[in-house]
Amino acid sequence: MEDNMELREQLFYEQKNGYDRLSTEESIRMNRYCREYMEFLNEARTEREASRYAIRKAEEYGFRPFTPGDPLLPGDKIYVSNRGKSLMLAVIGARSLAEGAVIAGAHIDSPRLDLKQIPLYEQDELAYLRTHYYGGIKKYQWVAIPLELHGVVVLKSGETLDICIGRETDEPKFVITDLLPHLAQEQMKKTMSDGITGEGLNILIGSAPYADDGKDRVKLAVLSLLNDAYGITEEDFLSAELTAVPAFDVTEIGLDRSLIGGYGHDDRVCAWAELKALFDLKEIPDRTCICILADKEEVGSDGVSGMQSAAFDFFMADLCETQSVPVRRCLEKSFCLSADVTAAFDPLYPDVSEKRSESKLNHGMAVCKFTGSRGKSGTSDASAEIVARLRGLFERHQVIWQLCEMGKVDQGGGGTIAKYMANRNIDTIDAGVPVLSMHAPFEIVSKLDCYMTYKGILAAYCG
Ligand code: MN
Ligand code: MN
Asked: Any idea what DSSP says for residue 309?
C-alpha cells in the first residue's frame, strides 16, 4: 500500500513555521514595523511613559482629545487619557455604534520594582532605596543587573516632577547587589523563591559621604544631590511614584536578527500593535475602532486605571451618547481582541508544556481561546463561534497565526484583561505575541510574531 500524501494534506492540521509563508515584501514591512516598535519600547518603560508616547504619536496622526458632549462624525479620531496612566483611543466608524465597535485592549504596565514610600536609608556607609515589587517576578533575576529610576514626585503644592535617571548613556544607573559564589554556600541551598527575598531587594544609590561630622553622611549626600537636581526633600518621597526598571537597551537578538530582546514586551508589544494598526487605518472603518491601553493588569486590573475601572464604561457611554445609542446595545454587538502576550514554547524547559498546544516563536499571532488555570478557572473562554470568525478574518487578511494555551493543564496559568471585557457582555478573545523569558527583566519576542500581531489587529479593525 502506498502513502496517501494527498489525503493527509487534505485532512491533517499542521502548524507551519511563519517564515515558510513570509514573502520578501512582507519581510521588509516586518522589519520596518519592528524598528518603530523598538523605538517605542526603548522610551516607554512605565505606563505613564507609554501613555505619553502614545498621545504624542496619536496627535501626529491627527487624533485629538475628546470631551464628553463633543459631536463626533465618521472618521473622527479621538482619545481620552485616564489620569495619564491608561489611554483610550477611537476612530469613529461609518456605521452606528448600535452595531457594535471593534475593541483592541492591551496593557502598558509591566513587572518592576516600585520604591517604598519611605525608601531611603543608610547602612554601613552605603545608601539604599527600599522597594516593593510590582507584578509577578522571579526575584533572583533582579539582582546584579543595571537599573534605572523612572516616575513622578508630586510636591505638596500639587506640582508634578517627572523623574528619569539612567536612560541616557551618560547618566548613572543603580543596582541590587548579590552575594559572591565564594561565600554563598548557605544562600545556594535555598530554593529559588527564597534565595532573594522581597525585603532584600534594596537598591544601592550612593556611597560617597557628605563632608561633615554628623550621622548618615551618605544618605545626606544623596538627598543633597536630589535636592540640587529636583528641589525635593526626603518627605517628598511620601507622594512619589518612583520605580526601578531594567536599564537594558532594546536590541536585536540572534545572528539572523530575527528576535527582539528588551524590558516590558509584556504587554507593550501588543499595545504598540494596536496603536499602529489604529494609526494605519487608511479609510473610514465600517465599525468604530477602539484601542485601549490599560494599566494595572499585572496586579489584577483593579483601581481607577485598571481594566475593571468604570473609566472604560463611561468612555463607551460618552461615545454612544453622541449617536443617541444605549451603551448596552453597543457592547452586546461589539467584539474585543484582548491583545496580550503568552508564553512561547521554550526548548530549554519542555517539561512545563504540552508541545502541541503551546505557542511557538515565528508561528505568528498566538490566539488563546481561554487562559486561567487548572480546570479553566478564571477565564472567559471565547466561544467556538468567535474562534471561527477569527479564522475567517485572518485567512482573508493573510495573517499568520496559531492557536495555543499556556503550559500543561495543571502546571500553572495566568489571566489577562479578557474576562473583564467579556463580563461586560462583549464577545472577547485573547491573542498576542509569544514571549520567551516572560516577566524577566529582559524578555524575547520574534519579529515575525510582532508583525503578525499588528496585522491581526488591523484585520480585526478593518473587518
Ligand atoms: Mn500581559
Ligand atoms: Mn504579564
From this structure: S
